[in-house]
């Protein structure tokens, strides 16, 4: 992966993408970019559990150094978003990351999550 952090402009654009996707799927979407301590899935789950409404939330955790992406969904979201669909979003992100564009990968994956998790 190229850049390990987002520029202010990329962050602003990603915030718009998140809000639009949240409106589409009626779930809260949170993104963590940083180092996952311990087992990545456990770390992502612990982050997800700290959200205001974890049952209605999607957490996307990206550890650029370890090249790991985890998506954790709450119970309400899992009724509409399958693991296979979440994996499609991971694949979309991976394609962007492989091209060296963290922001584009996140945007593609979050837009897809918003579409796939619709009621």
From TrEMBL:
This is DUF5130 family protein. Pfam families: DUF5130. The lineage of its organism: Bacteria, Bacillati, Actinomycetota, Actinomycetes, Propionibacteriales.
């Amino acid at each position: 992966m190229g850049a390990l952090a987002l520029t202010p402009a990329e962050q602003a654009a990603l915030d718009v993408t998140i809000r639009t996707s949240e409106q589409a799927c009626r779930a809260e979407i949170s993104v963590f970019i940083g180092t996952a301590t311990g087992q990545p899935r456990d770390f992502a789950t612990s982050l997800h559990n700290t959200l205001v409404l974890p049952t209605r939330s999607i957490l996307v955790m990206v550890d650029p150094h370890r090249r790991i992406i985890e998506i954790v969904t709450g119970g309400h979201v899992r009724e509409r978003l399958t693991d296979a669909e979440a994996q499609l979003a991971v694949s979309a992100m991976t394609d962007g990351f492989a091209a060296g564009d963290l922001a584009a990968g996140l945007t593609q994956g979050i837009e897809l999550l918003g579409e796939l998790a619709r009621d």
